[in-house]
Fold each of these.
Amino acid sequence: MALIEQLSPGPAPVVLPEVDERAARRTLREQIGHLERELVRTCLDACPRLDPGPPPRALASGPRLLSLGELERVRDELAGRLARVHGDLDAQLLRQAQARALLERMFADPPAHKWMRVSNAQLGEPGCKHFHVRPRLGPVGLLAGWWHVKVSSGCPLAWGP
C-alpha cells in the first residue's frame, strides 16, 4: 500500500496564469458607457419619451468591483435593453406616421371622418393641441353637412388662486 502511495502522484498543483485584466475591463467599461449613452439618447429623443427600464441588477447592488463575467452580463443586458427600446421607438414612429396620414385625410375630406380627433401626442409633437372634425356652426352645420377640422388653441391657461 505504501508503495502505491509513493508511485501515484498527488493532485497536481493548480497554476493560475498571471493575466492582466485591465485591458479587458477597460474595453468592457467603454462598451457599457457607449451602450448607456445610446440608450439615454434614444429614450430622450423620442417624443413622447420612452422608458429605459430599471438599472441592471449588477449595478443596483451598490458600489463594488465587478468581475469580468459580471461586466459582460451588464453589457449584454444593456445591449438587449437597447434593442428593445429601438423596437419600441420603431413602433412609436410607425404609429405617429399613421396618425399624420390620418390627419392629412381628415383635412382632405372632413365629412368622411366625422367626429375624429387627433392629438399632438399622437403625432409625436409637444403641446396640447388637438385636431377635431366637427360640424361648422354647431347644430345647423350638423343638419347641413358642413364639416371642418377644428384646431384647438393648445393647453388651457393655468388659473391660480
Amino acid sequence: MPPLLLFDGPCALCNRLLRILQSVDRRGELQYASLQSETAEQLGQQFGFDPQNQQSLVLVLQGETLFGHRAVKALPALLGLARLHPYRLMLGLYSLLPDAWQAGLYRFVARNRYKWFGRTEVCELPGRQPH
C-alpha cells in the first residue's frame, strides 16, 4: 500500500497543506483521503483508531500509523524534499523542538484551526486518491 495521508476534509488549513504537499510531491508518492471517508473508516478498523474522533493528521506508512506531529515530521523524507527546500527547512526547525513541545504545538494549532483558518463547505481533495 502506498503511503496514505488522512486529513480533516472540512478543515481549510488541512486543504491548504494538501495543496502544498501535492505541489512538492514530485515523485507522486503520497495518496490522500479525508478522515470522513470510507477509506479512513476501513483503516481505522484495521489499525484501531476512530477516524471520526481524530483531531490530527494520520499517516499510514508501511503498515504503521503515525498521528499528528509524528505524521508531519515524516513528510519531508517521504516526499524527497531537498535539504534546502523551504518546507524542509521549516519542518527541520520544528524538529529541533523537544518532542513534547512539538506535540503541544501541534495540538494547539489543531484545536484552533477552524477559528484561525475556517472550514470549507466541500472537501477539496486533490489527486492521487486511494482506490
